[in-house]
Specification:
This protein has 113 residues and is α+β, with helices and mostly antiparallel strands. It has 5 helices and 4 strands.
């Protein structure tokens, strides 16, 4: 998949500055234990109503794994954004496996808002 194909299909795609801000926020939420990694856990947080926002990688294969998430985010009024690379999302989540999506959750009493 080329860069032009990704830009046509992926909306809303984060630019470089917004990607850096998102990765910093994901790292902070990991430190506060407010981060859920993976498509199944992101779906679970959306169904429970505790998701603050969702970040998805564009270079997911097969794409059908994450196609339900934008629809579910729209139903639950939860913002979502797409990033270029699942490898950068992996580094921000602090795991050794590729992360295709993650969800930042709400916990009362924590400093991350």
């Amino acid at each position: 998949m080329t860069e032009a194909d990704v830009n046509l299909k992926a909306y809303p795609l984060a630019d470089a500055h917004f990607t850096k801000t998102l990765l910093d926020l994901v790292q902070q939420s990991r430190n506060y234990r407010q981060l859920w990694k993976g498509a199944n856990e992101a779906t679970r947080t959306l169904h429970r109503g505790i998701s603050e926002f969702t970040v998805m990688a564009v270079d997911t294969g097969p794409l059908e794994i994450t196609l339900h998430l934008p629809l579910l985010c729209g139903d639950k009024n939860v913002p979502y954004v797409l990033m270029h690379s699942k490898q950068t999302l992996e580094q921000a989540c602090g795991v050794s496996r590729l992360v295709i999506t993650c969800s930042v959750t709400i916990k009362k009493g924590f400093q991350l808002k």
